[in-house]
Amino acid sequence: MKSVLSAKHFHDEEAAYKFVEARLWPNGPVCPHCGGVERISKMGGKSTRIGTYKCYQCRKPFTVKVGTIFEASHVPMRHWLQAIFLMTSSKKGISSNQLHRTLGCTLKTAWFISHRIREAMRVNGLMMPPMGSGGGVVEADETFIGFVGGAKTSVAWSNKNIVFTLVERGGSARSFHVDGVRAADLMPIIRQNLSREAQLQTDEMNTYSYIAKKEGIDHEAVKHSKDEYVRREGDRLITTNTVEGYYSIFKRGMKGVYQHCKEKHLHRYLSEFDFRYSNRIATGYDDLARAEKALKGVRGKRLTYRTTNQ
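RESULT FIELD:
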């Protein structure tokens, strides 16, 4: 029996660079400064940093870190790879405190690493195909978590963060931090992410019925107020149990592992849980394949936190 964590790229810095280069540059080095692929050579010498190349078109040196979440980071590449594997293979996430203890880095560094990996997991919505194509079932629901500004009130969910999620049965999940649960808040999301062929299944909230009618989407609802959670109509199973199962994992992670989340960072935590759910065993991804997919998402997503509006 051999542990996946015994792989050389998790322990040797040069092997870690080669591992990342093979995934980000499958056809050979690409200069991040000018985009050139010719007249590039690897630099040698005892004082040269590991993985440094020089482009003789723009005459600038570079490594595979440039233009990625790794840029300007002093964290060893092997530790980045360890952190990516731990975050993508932990079903409910792994806290910065745990990363700090496991990697032997400071808590501040662990927090730095984890937020950048969440950014690598984030998928550009414009690149995603519509959900429910070909008549697939898409479940939708909303939940409330945390407190806006950190203050509690006695008025139900009035000052909580609102999360809206679409889950394609047997497929992917997409979650959004929204301002409310009115049609004006949810309709643009449904319009952008759902195929007109989709079967939308929700609870009995009137907003969903209104949106489905307005958009011409096939819609069925289960009546939780009458203790109805599953209904069968012919060969169709009407339920929201799939999206509620997603929320059970999300809330266990947010409350049990992360415990605290500022409103401005919530979208990245949603990306993390969406990524793991959408790339689970049932969709053909094991832990190693999921980690490699996250690694391929590191390009063009550098975070600096130098401004107050991040």
